[in-house]
TrEMBL record:
Keywords annotated in UniProt: Oxidoreductase
Protein family (similarity comment): Belongs to the aldehyde dehydrogenase family.
Aldehyde dehydrogenase domain: residues covered: 16-475
Source organism per UniProt: Marinobacterium zhoushanense
Pfam families: Aldedh
Active-site feature positions: E253
Protein name (database record): NAD-dependent succinate-semialdehyde dehydrogenase
PROSITE patterns: ALDEHYDE_DEHYDR_CYS (PS00070), ALDEHYDE_DEHYDR_GLU (PS00687)
NCBIfam families: SSADH
């Protein structure tokens, strides 16, 4: 694997470094098992040193002008886009998603560097009318301080820029811990950030095979003032506990159990295509993937016929092959979990309509699977699937399906298809989710707020709101005027 952006060392205080112990973490291609590279397996002590470097850099970085930060972020955006194909090839190699999806993610990830560079110049304060003629009341916004960003493997470019770009735009410094399955994309982004001209210590990156010890250091260190995490709900709850002792700001983008509702007045062809994209993108390994497909009884038979035909036609294979739509799962643990989930569902009475086994393509590939006859008493209805599995539920009326869709501790994304404008408003307002797609299956972009409610997290990423958690409001009361 040859690329000018590949790095195999971590980055701390403006230096590319190996682990002090000499230990390394192997990175492999999930589609082929090929060994791609070794990166440093760094310790909790080295993570603490990265925090200290970020804290030293913060003193000068916070004093830079918004315009200068915007210019650096713009340059980072341009470099990411100049290297779009190399980053996409790298992503497909270490994460497995089809190359077309990887190219799209690189552009999506770059958009956050562009957007938040522009937002850096819009972190406005305000003047408040004073109750006294001799005083003036003003607020200003200042960067919160050192940020710890912990990112997942399923979007190894976009989840980094969505956190790091607003932090840098606000004037914060960052210590990033990427997922141990996909550190190469993170290190490539770091190489491009260095080329863009960010000063030493402003962005630091620690790779490790011990995410618990390093993560605990980042989330409890007294010099870290903000933690941003994307991952599972159990880990997110642990991070909240860790951050509590030092009362850090915390943003969490956690698990989901997304419903996709098809009403009898929907454009059925559009709905079928929508759920196909929402469910099987990245082999079902996204937090906003459809988990539960609710179809109104009168159109269920027609929906299943159309949907089954499209699912059966999905091409499974290594992501760098032409026409592939379903790549591998990320690792052996992931595919074994998917096997167990499907086996248990069938044991509870689910109807196996398609798939239901590993693909002959390779060890970590799973057949696109369709399960019918699901109800909420089954375990599969109450967990995040993170695999290429669709589960079909039947419903009769609007009020019923809203209640069933909301009967989960999660509240990240939901989708529904209907052509009735009144129903669109009622259902959108009734669903207890942070994001709702109405006749639309792709929600994410840099200008809209991304995040969930209930146990799916706190805070928002992207949009003008995405920079707010990296800023503190300071109130200035000026007397004697």
């Amino acid at each position: 694997m040859q690329s000018t952006i590949i790095r195999t060392q971590a980055y701390v205080d403006g230096q590319w470094v190996s682990a002090a112990s000499g230990k390394t973490l192997a990175v492999t291609n999930p589609a082929t098992g090929e060994h791609l590279a070794d990166v440093p397996d760094m310790s909790a002590e080295e993570a603490a040193a990265a925090v200290e470097a970020a804290d030293r850099a913060f003193d000068s970085w916070k004093k830079t002008t918004a315009k200068s930060r915007a210019q650096l972020l713009r340059r980072w955006y341009e470099l990411i886009m100049d290297n779009q194909e190399a980053l996409a090839q790298l992503m497909t190699a270490e994460q497995g998603k089809p190359l077309a999806e990887s190219r799209g993610e690189v552009a999506y990830g770059a958009s956050f560097a562009e957007w938040f560079g522009e937002e850096a110049k819009r972190t406005y304060g305000e003047q408040i009318p004073s109750p006294s003629p001799t005083s003036r009341l003003v607020t200003i916004r200042q960067p919160v301080g050192v940020v710890a960003a912990i990112t997942p493997w399923n979007f190894p470019v976009a989840m980094i820029t969505r956190k790091v770009a607003p932090a840098l735009a606000a004037g914060c410094t960052v210590v990033l811990k990427p997922a141990e399955d996909t550190p190469l994309c993170a290190l490539a982004l770091m190489a491009l950030a260095e080329e863009a001209g960010f000063p030493a210590g402003v962005i630091n990156m620690v790779t490790t095979a011990d995410p618990i010890a390093v993560g605990d250091t980042l989330t409890s260190h007294p010099l870290v003032r903000k933690v941003s995490f994307t991952g599972s709900t159990p880990v997110g709850k642990h991070i909240l506990h860790q951050a509590a002792d030092t009362v850090k700001k915390v943003s969490l983008e956690l698990g989901g159990n997304a419903p996709f509702i098809v009403f009898d007045d929907a454009d059925l062809d559009a709905a079928v295509k929508g759920v196909l994209i929402s469910k099987y993108r990245n082999a079902g390994q996204t937090c906003v993937c459809t988990n539960r497909v609710y179809v109104q009884r009168s159109v269920m038979e027609q929906f299943v016929a159309k949907f089954s035909e499209l699912v059966a036609a999905l091409k499974v294979g290594p992501g760098d092959q032409e026409g592939v739509e379903i790549g591998p799962l990320i690792n052996r643990k992931a595919i074994e979990r998917v096997e167990q989930v499907v086996s248990h569902a069938v044991g509870e009475g689910a109807q196996l309509l398609l798939g239901g086994a590993r693909s002959e393509v390779g060890e970590l590939f799973y057949q696109p699977t369709l399960l019918g006859g699901i109800d909420e008493s089954m375990a599969i209805a109450n967990q995040e699937l993170f695999g290429p599995i669709s589960t079909l539920f039947v419903f009769d009326d609007e009020e019923e399906v809203i209640e069933r869709a909301n009967a989960t501790p999660f509240g990240l994304a939901a989708y529904f298809y209907s052509r009735d404008i009144g129903r669109c408003w009622r259902v959108a307002e009734g669903l207890e989710y942070g994001m709702v797609g109405i006749n639309e299956c792709i929600l994410s972009n840099e200008v809209a707020p991304f995040g969930g409610v209930k146990e799916s997290g706190t805070g928002r990423e992207g949009s003008r709101h995405g920079i707010e958690d990296y800023l503190e409001i300071k109130y200035l009361c000026m007397g004697g005027i």
